[in-house]
Design brief:
By secondary structure, this protein is mostly helical. The chain has two domains: 59 residues, Arc Repressor Mutant, subunit A, CATH 1.10.10; 170 residues, Orthogonal Bundle (Tetracycline Repressor, domain 2), CATH 1.10.357. Helices cover 70% and strands 0% of the residues. The longest helix has 36 residues.
Length: 244
């Protein structure tokens, strides 16, 4: 007995249907993340309800729980998205600066740190509210540490190694140095974002960070300078970096 004839359109129907289903699922997930991001940035995590998110995304509550375990799991995805965008933007800025104004690794570290801390003062982005304020409170320090490890350790390690090779920094074991410097930056960013006056906190943090980081510099190296160029609303007594 001959097998039944298979028409060409029968062969391609299921793969096409599967592709459309996958696209629909991806679109739903994207819509949920976008809607949640807007709400979390405007209202904060605690004040945002899942019913608002699904209404904005124009999907069902069942669709939300198909893609995410709960509101916290959705927030985790939003936080990862925002952190990834900021990390990419900061790296692009520093690479562009390096291309137009070539400089040593020590200077690049200073400008990179300054950019990160200045960014932490901004209230016109999702970064401060979602990543710095609500992120650690909702997901704990482990989530914050995971973001730092994912987006910061490798690049920071490379720049520190270059600074050591250029004799700007004492020859210190790079792996623990990277962790310690990353921790300083993380705490500085959190402190600025949560301050009543972020601009004043930024100035004060720059002074403290300059003094700490200048301790790893070789004698005769250019002073570490990360103090913001933005004026604080309430200037501290000594706005200059406390470096020798």
């Amino acid at each position: 007995m001959r097998p039944p004839a298979v028409h060409h359109n029968q062969v391609v129907t299921k793969p096409r249907r599967d592709e459309k289903t996958a696209e629909a699922k991806a679109d739903t997930r994207t819509a949920l993340v976008a809607a949640a991001r807007r709400r979390f940035a405007e209202q904060g995590y605690a004040a945002t309800g899942t019913e608002e998110i699904v209404a904005d995304a124009r999907v069902t509550r069942g669709a939300l729980y198909h893609h995410f375990r709960d509101k916290a799991d959705l927030f985790r995805e939003v936080m990862k998205e925002v952190a990834s965008e900021v990390a990419a933007a900061l790296v692009e800025t520093e690479l562009s600066r390096e291309a137009t104004e070539p400089s040593d690794a020590w200077t690049q570290l200073c400008t990179g740190f300054r950019s990160l801390l200045d960014f932490s003062t901004r209230t016109d982005t999702d970064f401060q509210r979602i990543v710095l304020v609500d992120g650690p409170a909702v997901l704990g320090n482990d989530a914050w540490n995971a973001l730092v490890e994912r987006h910061g350790y490798r690049l920071l390690s490379q720049w520190l190694e270059r600074a050591i090779a250029e004799n700007a920094i004492d020859p210190i074991p790079v792996a623990p140095l990277t962790r310690l410097v990353a921790a300083l930056l993380a705490e500085a960013s959190l402190y600025i974002a949560k301050a009543t006056d972020p601009l004043a906190a930024r100035q004060e943090t720059g002074i403290a960070l300059d003094r700490l980081m200048s301790g790893i510099a070789r004698r005769g190296a250019r002073p570490w300078e990360t103090t913001s160029t933005q004026p604080a609303r309430d200037p501290v007594e000594d706005p200059a970096p406390a470096t020798s």
